[in-house]
Write a structure and sequence with these properties.
Blueprint: E1 2-7, E2 12-19, E3 23-31, H1 33-37, H2 44-66, E4 75-81, H3 85-102, E5 106-110, H4 111-117, E6 129-134, E7 139-144, E8 151-155, H5 161-171, H6 178-186, H7 210-225, H8 232-257, E9 262-266, H9 273-284, E10 290-292, H10 296-299, H11 304-315
Parallel strand pairs: 1-4, 4-5, 6-9, 9-10
Antiparallel strand pairs: 1-2, 2-3, 6-7, 7-8
Bound molecules: adenosine-5'-triphosphate (ATP), magnesium ion and fe (iii) ion.
């Protein structure tokens, strides 16, 4: 069973071919980071234009590398949301055109469901599981009791973890995307600056990062006014310590409460070395729960994860019609 995955929700134009839901046959990602860098963030209109330029090339390359033709493809899985509407529309329209022309079934996939399913490209999922989703636009704890069943038990009330990383990086004059830059700096510094931890209510699995972000900015401004210097690496280390402590603390608590068999990490911030190390240390003390973090190239946006999730949906009988649209605010629990 071959599924072609297409992903264009943000600034990566991606296509991949997955065999039987788990085996990567080809995985092509055209990143636009260089184009957006000089603006310090993703420019939506620019992203759409790049997707239009790249989409055909990327899909053809995925087929070529996999050594298959459209005759071999059983389904086309495409990210229908959430994301930038103009960016999503390019992938959705390409998928619809191919599905119509080649008479191939079409399956719409939720981008975050895809991030979680990136884990199935490494090993079979064990339910119930808890997924810590940490990406550019999302920070969520998702409980899955079975395939394609997503229960959001906690989510950010303001900024996503990746967004906080990118904003703090910008304040420190680091290039976009800031996450990897802060991660690198953090390892050169000491977490000696007192920053808040947003635990929220005792029984809440929600997150909040905007207060922490403001605290970092205020710390810098106050120091500048007093003519003091703060080492950026110490600020990065202190910021990262706060983010990681809360993410790990809530994940461990939820894993225990819901008696899950495994904890999966998903999304771009899962590439963070500080987070990976802290999670590994925490779950070493909890041997009844397995911890799995995908390799970095499967944490950031790609189409292999969309095809992996799309395969499960296809096997469950989900089909999207040719009137499929792009849904910028698509809900994970109801897509
Ligand atoms: P979403 O998936 O929510 O729609 P997105 O697709 O833009 O958003 P991803 O591609 O999953 O997000 O992740 C990108 C984010 O990951 C960026 O905010 C980036 O700064 C962050 N990131 C990448 N590597 C690291 C790292 N090592 N440490 C911290 N953050 C990182
Ligand atoms: Mg991206
Ligand atoms: Fe993403």
């Amino acid at each position: 069973l071959f599924v072609l995955g297409i992903e264009t929700s943000c600034d990566e134009t991606a296509a991949a071919i997955i065999k039987n839901g788990t085996e990567i046959v080809s995985n092509v990602v055209a990143s636009q980071i260089e184009s957006h860098k000089r603006f310090g963030g993703v420019v939506p209109e620019l992203a759409s234009r790049h997707h239009v330029e790249q989409i055909t090339i990327v899909i053809e390359e995925a087929l070529q590398k996999a050594n298959v033709t459209f005759q071999d493809i059983d389904a086309i899985a495409v990210t229908e949301g959430p994301g930038l509407v103009g960016a999503l529309l390019v992938g959705v329209n390409a998928a619809k055109a191919l599905a119509f022309a080649q008479q191939i079934p079409l399956v719409g996939v939720h981008h975050i469901a895809g991030h979680i399913y990136a884990n199935r490209l490494e090993r079979e999922l064990k339910f119930p599981l808890l997924a810590l989703v940490v990406s550019g636009g999302h920070t969520e704890l998702v409980l899955m009791k079975d395939h394609a069943q997503f229960e959001v038990i906690g989510e950010t009330r303001d900024d996503a973890a990746g967004e906080a990383y990118d904003k703090v990086a910008r304040t420190l004059n680091l290039p976009y995307p800031g996450g990897p830059q802060i991660d690198r700096l953090a390892h050169e510094g000491v977490p000696n600056i007192d920053l808040p931890r947003a635990w929220l209510e005792e029984d809440s699995y929600d997150f909040s990062f905007s207060g922490l972000k403001s605290a970092v900015i205020n710390t810098m401004h106050n120091a500048a006014q007093r003519g003091e210097t703060i080492k950026p690496e110490d600020l990065a280390a202190s910021f990262q310590a706060s983010v990681v402590e809360v993410l790990v603390g809530k994940t461990v608590k939820a894993a225990k409460e819901y008696n899950v068999k495994e904890v999966l990490v998903a999304g771009g911030v899962a590439a963070n070395k500080g987070l990976r190390t802290a999670l590994e240390a925490a779950f070493e003390k909890l041997p009844e729960v397995e911890l799995h973090i995908p390799p970095i190239h499967l944490c950031t946006d790609n189409a292999a994860m969309i095809a992996a999730c799309g395969t499960v949906l296809f096997q469950q009988g989900k089909r999207s019609e040719l009137n499929l649209n792009a849904y910028p605010g698509l809900d994970l629990e109801r897509f």
